[in-house]
Amino acid sequence: MDVRNCRGCGKLFNYVSGPFMCPACREKLEEKFQEVKKYIQENRGVTVADVSEACDIDANQVRQWIREERLEFASGASEICCEQCGTPITSGRFCDKCKNSMVNSLNNVYKQDAPARPSRDDRSGGPKMRFLG
To answer: What is the DSSP string of the chain?
Structure first.
């Protein structure tokens, strides 16, 4: 069991995965996200600073949601750049070109390192199994 202190309230909680936040603080943060989402839908073209001030939330949290691709900038209004090449992007961590490049690289590595699997018809070799009883 992994017990951690919540980054939101400081209480101890049983950590499973994700951010180091207790379930109650995660729920509050999700409610705040829904408030931010509604504000953006009602006020198109707002900036991170506008959202932060209007919804009383840290601008870094808004940027985190943008990096997580939960929010995005309107086209042409980007404040963030691709972490690999520096191209301005509207959300996430990487531009489409860098994402595709990474996917292709991973696919190539997987194809090279994939062990040859024997076919189902080739059952003559290897240890045999049976039921005990």
So the answer is: -EEEE-TTT--EEEE-SSSS--HHHHHHHHHHHHHHHHHHHHSTT--HHHHHHHHT--HHHHHHHHHTTSS-PPTT---EE-TTT--EESSSSS-HHHHHHHHHHHHHHHHHHPPPPPPTT--SSS-------
Instruction: State the pTM of this model.
Output: 0.71
CA angle 56, 36, 6 (to 5 degrees): 65
pLDDT at 21: 92
pLDDT tens digits along 34-73: 999 999 999 988 889 999 999 999 999 999 999 999 998 8
**pLDDT for residue 79:** 78
66, 56 Cβ separation under 8 angstroms: no
Q: What b/e string do you get for 51-68 counting C-beta neighbours within 10 Å, with b at 16 or more?
A: bbeebebeeebbeebbee
